[in-house]
Write a structure and sequence with these properties.
about 180 residues; Spore Coat Polysaccharide Biosynthesis Protein SpsA, Chain A; 8-stranded mixed beta sheet; 6 helices
């Protein structure tokens, strides 16, 4: 089994954050008992969905996951997915922690960021329709063949940024497309 981790990198993201993201993916990949490839994907300012589609075109693995350039995964992030991925589901959803600017951490209990998707299924979705929230689109379209892993594997920075403001502006218009 192989997993391609697509790290979308925007030019406006502080380089220290990008380095943290890439280093965390590399460390977690070393601990995984299967092949994990890291693919850097150029960000498309104002269009997360297009960047994700561009990344999917570069992926050749059975499963694909996305990591934002300003976040990081924990060392066991991919190894905890092993048993679930062996069952060949459409997706395996793990949990994340939100980290605020003041250092406060809080768990996020819904399906969200670090999800390993069956590549053919993900490639069949037109993520370019979603400028701001393509992962939400995928989560809402999931069939029942999904496994939830309740380990916390992903640390998501909650911050105000120009990219976040743009995503928020596009999200309202996209809400009609989720149905």
């Amino acid at each position: 089994m192989t997993l391609d981790v697509l790290v979308t990198i925007l030019p406006s993201t502080p380089s220290a954050w990008v380095e943290t993201a890439l280093a965390s993916v590399s460390e977690a990949a070393r601990e995984a008992p299967f092949t994990v490839n890291t693919i850097r994907v150029p960000g498309v300012p104002g269009h997360v969905g297009q960047a994700m589609m561009d990344g999917l075109q570069l992926s050749t693995a059975e499963y694909v996951a996305w990591v934002d350039d300003d976040d990081w995964v924990l060392p066991r992030a991919f190894s905890v997915l092993t048993d679930a991925l062996a069952q060949q589901p459409i997706a395996v959803c793990a949990r994340e922690m939100w980290v605020y600017a003041n250092g406060y951490e809080t768990p996020f209990t819904e399906r969200h960021h670090l999800t390993a998707w069956n590549s053919p299924w993900a490639k069949a979705q037109d993520l370019s329709l979603f400028r701001a929230t393509p992962l939400l689109c995928l989560l809402k379209r999931l069939p029942s063949d999904v496994i939830d892993v309740y380990d916390t594997v992903y640390m998501h920075r909650k911050r105000r940024s120009p990219a976040q403001a743009l995503r928020k502006a596009h999200a309202a218009a996209e809400s009609q497309l989720w149905l």
